[in-house]
Amino acid sequence: MSFTERELRALAAEGAAALTGSPATEVLQWAVNSGLRLAIAGSMQDTVLVHLASTALPGVDVLFLDTGYHFRETLQTRDRVAAAYSVRVRSITPRQTVAEQDADYGVALHERDPDLCCALRKTQPLDEVLGEYDAWATGLRRAESESRRDTPIVSYDERRDKIKLAPLAAWSDEQVAAFAEAHDLIANPLLSQGYPSIGCAPCTRRVAAGADARSGRWAGTAKTECGIHV
Ligand code: SF4
């Protein structure tokens, strides 16, 4: 089943009205029951959304943006999730390897132009793979940062012409931690080593206890988002 832009917009509006306050698994099931081809974006920071998706929609596709710059612990978390959860983990790679990018743009592009590096290694690969789907779900939460405080649970992704779900939008940090503990979820070990928000290794720093969780991302620059959510 394929959808026109108009149909997707109508479905997004319908979902937004119907799913306020709904449990995360209901949000995911709504998408599939609506006939949408759904993918879950999995950063492998925590695995709450992937776990919920594996129980509600066994076999669902999980997209991991394998930028070539991830921490070893993050890649190990991805591999553990792929082995243990009922999902199909797809590692999505950029068009160029890091070495090819270095040759074309110079080494350490992330230091000189992180927006371009993120565009090449995250945004473009995600945009391309999402062509295979009608909807995608992310683990975005309002509590994560000021810029995410208005995150809707269901929206229309204008840039990609997809439905975008944020089933955990209303979850607090404490809820995430409690759920992960109660269900003994696979966790990225960096979470307990001072990294409350985990991205690529060159652009992620430890943060002091109690500090803004995302302050360790692109620390020392004005950049706060990689671009896939804007
Ligand atoms: S987070 Fe850093 S290394 Fe990763 S894609 Fe963005 S700029 Fe490049």
Summed up:
The protein is α/β, with parallel strands linked by helices and 230 residues long.
Structure description:
The protein has 230 residues and is α/β, with parallel strands linked by helices. It has a single domain (5-194), classed as HUPs (Rossmann fold), CATH 3.40.50. It has helices at 5-18, 24-33, 48-56, 72-84, 98-105, 109-112, 114-129, 173-182, and strands at residues 38-41, 60-65, 87-92, 135-137, 154-157, 162-165. Strands 3-2-1-4-6-5 form a six-stranded mixed β-sheet, sandwiched between helices. The longest helix is centred in the middle third of the chain and has 16 residues, at 114-129. Bound molecules: iron/sulfur cluster. Iron/sulfur cluster binds next to helix 7.
CATH hierarchy: architecture: 3-Layer(aba) Sandwich
Please summarize the sheet with the most strands: 6 strands, mixed
CATH class: Alpha Beta
Compute the average pLDDT. Answer: 93
The CATH topology is: Rossmann fold
Strand portion: 5-15%
- End-to-end CA span: 28 Å
Bound molecules: iron/sulfur cluster
The coarse silhouette is: globular
> Could you name the ranges where pLDDT drops below 50 across 5 or more consecutive residues?
none
User: How many domain regions?
Assistant: 1
The tally of strands reads 6
Sheet/helix structural class: alpha/beta
List keywords for this structure.
Adenosine 5'-phosphosulfate reductase; single chain; phosphoadenylyl-sulfate reductase (thioredoxin) activity; iron-sulfur; 230 residues; metal-binding; 8 helices; six-stranded mixed sheet; binds iron/sulfur cluster; globular
